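Final report, closing paragraph on structural work. Over the funding period we assembled a curated collection of sequence-structure pairs, and we close with a single example.
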Amino acid sequence: MSRSYTGLVFILPAIIVLAMLIAYPVIYTGYLSVTDPQGALTTKNFVNVIRAPASLQAFLNLIYFVGGSIVFQVVLGTAAAILLNQSFYGRGIVRSITLIPWVVPGIVAATTWAWMFHTEFGIINYMLTGAGAIPAPIGWLTNKDTVMPVMIAINVWKLFPFVAVMVLAGLQSVPQELYEAARMDGANFWNEVRDIMLPQVRPVIVSVTLLLVIWGLNSITLIYAITRGGPANKTLITPILIFRLAFESFQFNQAAALSVLFFIVAAIIVAIYLRVSRSPEGA
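Its predicted structure, as stored:
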């Protein structure tokens, strides 16, 4: 047996597993999207999900949720990384504590924050009313004006440590000679941040932001566990709508059609981001 065939034999189990877990579901989803429950070819699934008002609302909510989350995740994560890169007493302990939100399971975080934002028993309202900041408890998760900002805040808390860790790793690789040369020229801390740190970690920030975009577009745990898309669909996002169509309404063909459309739109968003964020050297 030749070496090429030997290698193929060794990777064949992995190929079979990937085909079963990835290729087959993708192909079957595409098949469901263009057929009716009886198996006949049709385009009505795409027409129905495009015309449905909930589809547009869910997508706009998703863009709001992902965009708002990423802005604060990147800004807070980068700021935390810069601070954690400085020398101070107990730095190792602070770095470890910073990771706690990221390592907490999503369902645990969702349940905890749901209780904290509870209108009657939540500690958030208790502290704010006790301090006199608000006259009466606020229905953070039942008010249509506050529920999405709360979801964004929870998502930022959950994932900004990931940004901090990745950016901190990039800062650790910045040569100390750059800082020394800048200080000799009279640069202060803010000059170092603007002219040395941020330019040096730009590739890391670009890569991390791309991961956040992909994760955000596919996020479902926090919102579904806390609000299930309510109230009045104010936190309904596309992944939850797909779940509802498939496993609550049993409209698998329409759910598959919406999945295909969502995949195309997500791929376009990622492609645009990669194009816009491409460095001048790679253009």
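The chain has one domain: 53-282. The longest helix spans residues 53-84. We thank the funder for supporting this effort.
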